[in-house]
Amino acid sequence: MTLPEHPERAPQREDRAVGQQEPEKTAGGNPDISPSVASQPTVAQPTVAQLAEDYAAKAGLHRSSNGNIDVLKSAGGIQGIAESILPGLVFLIAFTIDRENLTLAVIASLAVAAVFTVARLLQRKPLTQALAGFIGVGLSAWLATSTGKAENFYVLGFFTNIGSILAMSISVAVRWPIAGLLFGFIRNEGLDWRKDPKRVKAYSLGTWVIVSVLVLRLVVQVPLYFMGEQGFAALATTRLLMGAPLYILGIWIAWLLTRPAPVPAGAKEPN
User: Fold this and answer.
1) Which of 141, 213, 227, 247 is packed most tightly, with the most Cβ within 10 A?
2) DSSP-assigned letter for residue 31
């Protein structure tokens, strides 16, 4: 015997079907977008100027309020310059006072670098520069103590300079000069400068200026290094003088040499 369908089932199906509502349509007429999603504000895209400032900051270069490069800030500010100079200066003073105690000079230099690292932690500043400096001092200290030669404290800097010289020279050879990649973003040129042969030439010249600074360091310091302990004091002194101060001077000259030609009055600037 066949049982009849339960009398409550059909109404339930009907109620369920009738109870289903059509998706709400938004102002744009798209039923698949809920009102909450449609009402979300559109995220503003960063401007070219903002992208330029962010890129320049990550590269270690900064722009002042008048649009020029802030050389002092680009060198890390007063604290950044101190971080690059004081460990070497303390090493020089300590070893000059007691030439028989190389270990003491190394420990004093490392202590100064560690203080700067801790200071950045307390100030909640980026640790990149301080950590890089501490690691560099640590490697230099290891080279000096492992060989027993104080002048080897400066060997790592020679290889760093050589690597930078090669990288910058290659960038000019392939028509992507480093000065253009850095200064171009600060000036809001982006990469448009590569479309103008004159700008490529100018930025190549600016890159060669920075390369010449690095080459000058090697020309002066390497002969002093091979003089051994007799040339240590002169090597350490020139290392300090030709460090941050000479770098700042080189960056500033490169900036001036790569300035775009002034736009005549009434003329439209190129897009």
Assistant:
1) 141
2) T
